[in-house]
Amino acid sequence: MEITFLGTSSGVPTRSRNVSSVALRLPQRAEIWLFDCGEGTQHQLQKSGLKSSQIRRIFVTHMHGDHTFGLMGLIASCGLAGSGQPIDIYGPKGLKEYLFAAAKYSYMNFGSRLKIHTVESGLLYEDKEFSISCQLLKHRVPAHGYRVVEKDRSGMFNLEKAQALGIPPGPIYGKLKQGEVVTLEDGRKINGKDLCGQPEIGRKFVYCTDTVFCDGAVELAQDADVLIHEATFAHQDADMAFEKMHSTTTMAAQVALLAGVKQLIMTHFSPRYAPGNPIQLDDLKQEAKAIFPQTKLAYDFYTHEIPRRREEKNKKVKVAT
Amino acid sequence: MEITFLGTSSGVPTRSRNVSSVALRLPQRAEIWLFDCGEGTQHQLQKSGLKSSQIRRIFVTHMHGDHTFGLMGLIASCGLAGSGQPIDIYGPKGLKEYLFAAAKYSYMNFGSRLKIHTVESGLLYEDKEFSISCQLLKHRVPAHGYRVVEKDRSGMFNLEKAQALGIPPGPIYGKLKQGEVVTLEDGRKINGKDLCGQPEIGRKFVYCTDTVFCDGAVELAQDADVLIHEATFAHQDADMAFEKMHSTTTMAAQVALLAGVKQLIMTHFSPRYAPGNPIQLDDLKQEAKAIFPQTKLAYDFYTHEIPRRREEKNKKVKVAT
Ligand SMILES: [Zn+2]
Ligand SMILES: [Zn+2]
After folding, report:
1. Which residues bind Zn(2+) 2 (chains A, B) (predicted)?
2. What is the C-alpha separation between A266 and A288, in angstroms, rounded?
3. Nearest-10 crossing angle of helices A95-105, B95-105
4. Measured between CB atoms, which of B46, B63, B108 is closest to A107?
5. ipTM score of complex
6. Do A13 and B108 touch (CB under 8 A)?
7. For chain B, which has fewer Cβ within 10 Å, the N-terminal or C-terminal residue?
C-alpha cells in the first residue's frame, strides 16, 4: 500500500501545491484508488508516473470544486486513452447528478463502464482482501471520510512440523490452522498457534477531509496505520476554522491521538501559510507534533508506504476455549 | 495586443502541452480576454505570470471538455482571490446550463458579477476601441470562431502646422482633422491629411478551433494580423481530420492563404505527433509553410505580440470630394 499526494492545497492551487487528491496504490492488484479529484489531478498523475489506466475506484469526500473539478477531465482522458477500465466512483448526494449534467452538456457518453455510487455512513465495498467504509464528517456541506481496511491474513501453517508431531490426518488440521487448541487421542494438547506463522495484520488507511474536529473522524480513524487529516489552519486561526468548518493542526492531532493511529499526515493547507508569510507550514507541523509526535506534513508527490505488519506481542490472542 | 498560448494540445494534456486556452492581453486597458478554458488553465495562468484578476471576458468556442473543463475552477479561484472583477463569458448553447448545473452541485454562487452570453454568428460586443464577432465553424458539435477587431485610430492633428499656415479658427479645423480637403477664404486648398499623422490601422485577431476546413473560417479570418487556427492532424491523416471534423496543417494554411492573413499560428495538435513518433510537429510546420510561409507553431507559454501598424502606402485613401 502506497500513498501518493497529488494535491495538498485547500481551495485554490498554488505554484507548488495543487488542490486535493490522494492516490492509494495497491501493488498486489495493480490498482489505484483515488481519493478526491480536484482540477488538474490528471496532470498530477501524469507527472507522478502513476498510471491513470490503473485507477479502479474514486472516492469523493464532498462536492466542493477543489475536490471534484478534475473528475470530468480524468474520466474523459481515461476514455480517450482507450484503456477503458471500469471505474466505480463513490461520493455524496449530488455527485451523480453533477457528473451526468457535465457529461450531457459536454457531449460525453460514459457508457457502461462508469458506476456512480451515492454513499451513506457505513460499509461501501468489500472483497476478499479489502473493505471500505465511510463516515459523515462535519463540514459546511455533507462530507464523508473514508476508511480502507485490509483484512488480516492468518500465518502460514507449518505442515511438516505437524506431521513430525505425529498428528494423524483428519479435520483436526482445519482446527489447528484456525489457531485452535485441540486434544489428540493420546491426550496431548496441541495449540494450533504454535504451528502457524505469525498472522499478518491488515493495514488501515483513513482519509478525513474536509471537516472541523468531530467524533466521526475519531471513530473512523480508530487504530489506523495512517490517518490523512486536513489541517487547513494554524491553531491561532481557529476562529476561521470553526467559521469555515475546517480543522486546525491541533484538531487534526487530537483526532490522531484519540483514535490511537500510528501516523498522522496533515494536508489541505491554506495558501496563507505559503513561504513568505508570518506563519508557515513548519509552524503548523510543530503545533501538531506537540500533541501527536508522529505527524508529517504532506506535499505534492510525497509518497508514503504503509508497511505490512505482524501481530504485536501484547495483542490479545484468540484461543478456543 | 499580446497573445499567450496556455494550452496547445488537442483532447488530452501531455507532459508539455495543456489542453486549449489562449490569453489575449490588452495592455492599454489592463484586461485579458481568454479564448477557451480547458482543465488546468488557471494553473497555466499562474505559471505564465498573467494575472487572472485581469480576465474580463472569456470566449468559449464549443462545449467539448478540453475547451471548457477549466472554467469552473477559474471562476471559483477568481472569486476566492477576492478580486471579484465582473466577467462576461460568451459561448454556444448549453454553456450557461452547464455552468449553472456545475455551480449548483458544487454549492457555488456566481453572484451578479458573472454574465453568460449565448452566441450566434455576428457581432457580439463593441466599445470605442474594439468589436468582437463570431462565426459558426464546422465541427461535430456547434463551434464558433472569434474575431477581435481594434478600431482604426486617425492620426494626430498637427495644430502648430495649421496655425503656421494661417488657417483661421472655426469649424474648418473639425473638417481638416477628419482628413477632408477645404478651401480657405483666400482661395488656398488645404488637404487635412497633410496636417494629420498617419492613421493607425486597428489590429485583427482571429481564433478558429475546432473545425475542419470551412468557408466560415476564411470569411472570419479576412485580413487578420494573426489567425490562430487548429491543426490537429498532419496532412497524411486527413481521413481522421474529416472523420473527427478537425483540420490538417494544409487546411489551416489554406484558410490563412485565402483570407490573406499576415501570420498563421497553428495549435491544438494531436498528441500522436509528440517527440518520438514517426511524424512530428516539425513535419506539420513544413507542410503548412509549403502553402503559407508565414506559419508558426504554438507551444505552451509562447507569447506573440501583434504590433500596431500604420496605414499602408497602397491603401486607398479617403478624400472628401
Ligand atoms: Zn470543502
Ligand atoms: Zn472539439
Report:
1. 66-67, 210, 268
2. 9
3. 170
4. B63
5. 0.87
6. no
7. C
